[in-house]
Design a protein that fits this description.
InterPro entries: CheW-like_dom_sf. This is Purine-binding chemotaxis protein CheW. There is one protein chain. This protein has one helix and three strands; from the N terminus they run βββα. A three-stranded antiparallel β-sheet has the order 1-2-3, with no helix packed on it. The protein starts with 23 loop residues before the first strand and ends with a helix.
Length: 64
């Protein structure tokens, strides 16, 4: 298909961080309580969980 330029606007950013491959974990497929297909990976930073969303899977259906 054709490519589309898409922008995302955030109301607020609390913190920007980077995660290495060693700081990420696989996503459990059961017991989470939400659609894990929209999550790219899960990481931890200073004891807090960070969920990295798969923005392509979230936005692509909106512009298709």
């Amino acid at each position: 298909g054709e490519q589309a330029l898409v922008g995302v606007l955030a109301d607020r950013v609390h913190q920007v961080t980077s995660l290495s491959q060693t700081e990420t974990e696989t996503i459990p497929s059961v017991g989470v309580g939400w659609d894990v297909s929209l999550i790219k990976t899960i990481g931890k930073d200073h004891g807090a969980f960070i969920i990295v969303l798969d923005m392509e899977k979230i936005i692509l259906p909106l512009v298709a």
